[in-house]
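Closing statement on the DGJ sub-project.
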Amino acid sequence: MSRSITPVRNRSCSGAPRFALAVVFLLAACAAPSVFGQSQEIPHLDQKDGHYRLLVDGKPFFVLGAQVHNSSGYTKALDAAWPVLHAVHCNTVMVPVYWEAIEPKQGTFDVSTVDAAVKGAREARLHLAFLWFGTWKNGAMTYVPSWVKNDPATYPPVLDEAHQQVEALSPISDSNRLADRTAFAAFMRHLKQLDGDTHTVILIQVENEAGVLGTDRDYSAQANSSFNGPVPSDVVASLGKAAPNGSTWTQVFAERAPEAFMSYWTARYMDSVAEAGKSVYPLPMYINVWPREQPGLLRPGYSSPSGGAVAYLLPMWKRVAPHIDIIAPDIYDENEDLYRNLLTLYNRPDNPLMVPETGGSVNHAKNMFLTFAANNALGISMFGIDGISADDLNKPNGPASEIAFDYALFGPGANFWRSLSDSGHMQAAIEEEGLANPALTFDDFDVAVRFGPVTNNYGGARGRGNPRRNGRVLVGQIAPNEFLISGMSANVILAPRLGSAAKKAMVVSVEQGHFEAGEWHVDRLLNGDETAFGLTLPEHGDTLRVKVRAY
Ligand code: DGJ
């Protein structure tokens, strides 16, 4: 059986859902690409009803990514990666492209790594995001070509307070910036010729976790003079600071001045690189951030790079770097609160949400549900997929197998789920140590999620928690009395919302099914023992469409 589902439309201005306006919503496309290059439109971002979307061949596309290891952007390493990329059910592979490989001699370009990755992705029927490892890689200059590394007089590195060279190029130097721009534009020019009509490549990451490690700022003579000069007035204005014209970095930012100063110059530099690439082929471009909100000593330049797009400087980045479409936090946090905090900080009206790197643990797989449900999310990607074999990934409890479960469950219906999220009708519940019974509240119904074996005690039936704390659930409201419920290792019951006249909820029907090419397919109707004790979602995941009546 295949059916179209009718989702709830956007809320009215008063906040009440406008169910009367429900219109049959035919899902635009499944997340997995089946055919490349069906449209003249190049991949781009747009905003509809205040929500960001990534459009690929004219259709919304939610990125379920897998990133290969840092040195795997070469044919042989990629050949080993394709089977596990297939097994993880991603729709996009993220592959680094290296300045040192693209321009081994100044002015001589070698694009063979680009060609190989695009060819491989097409054969694997995956989309591709290229990551430009240029001036920056984790706060260092490790991927710049040797002709740059060996010529510090022409391509100056950052100098620390003792005037010792640090292994990072100075963001203040024009020669550094122009050299990176030239190489990046050559890469993008080739990409346009290779893929401009096919659109295998949908996103470009500019640099990697920019900033400097080893000092809080550049102490070269040029940097000192700029640091002791006035903060540009648009920087002060963008951050809503009240400072007299001509105030220095220290006067405006106090102890955060070195970081803010480096961040300003890094934003200008990265914008210039992105602009050079976009001027030849304007694909959507993002930067990935090593967020300073992650736990640690929090010393910019030492415990994390100084100069990245840390959260409190985002308004400045948006002003200074308009060619960067998405400022995206790498989130390796396993703690739910830390993870949620980063989602909130980087999800802004002027910045779509994307998580370009996350880990492969059970906790990462659980937190991934928070990204799936987040307003304005464009996608997520797991780092280091080719460190795992396809066999291991397919084993129960194997490394990253929970990520594969997430992608397999969410991917085919991603666009439908995203429409529910955009209209404010989707929520996630995830299991935590000591949190086995979260409750979600919708307009007319409360949804109680129980993780682990359910037993009776004072106050009724409660989940006792899963041994691996792996429970996670997405709930979407399709209509006032209809829900889509998807997830793993959980049991769900519905009740009329506290305060409503009705006291009980009757399950009218439960379809167990799956999405295929954006269409809902019913595998069977659940009833009897399968619904009498709540709606059970097994360890590998399941999706249920539930109609309910309050009485
Ligand atoms: C974050 C970086 O962006 C990646 O390239 C990689 O180095 C990971 N850290 C390793 O954990």
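Residues 70, 138, 208-209, 288, 330, 357, 383 surround DGJ (CB under 6 Å). With this model delivered, the sub-project is considered complete and its resources will be redirected to Aim 3.
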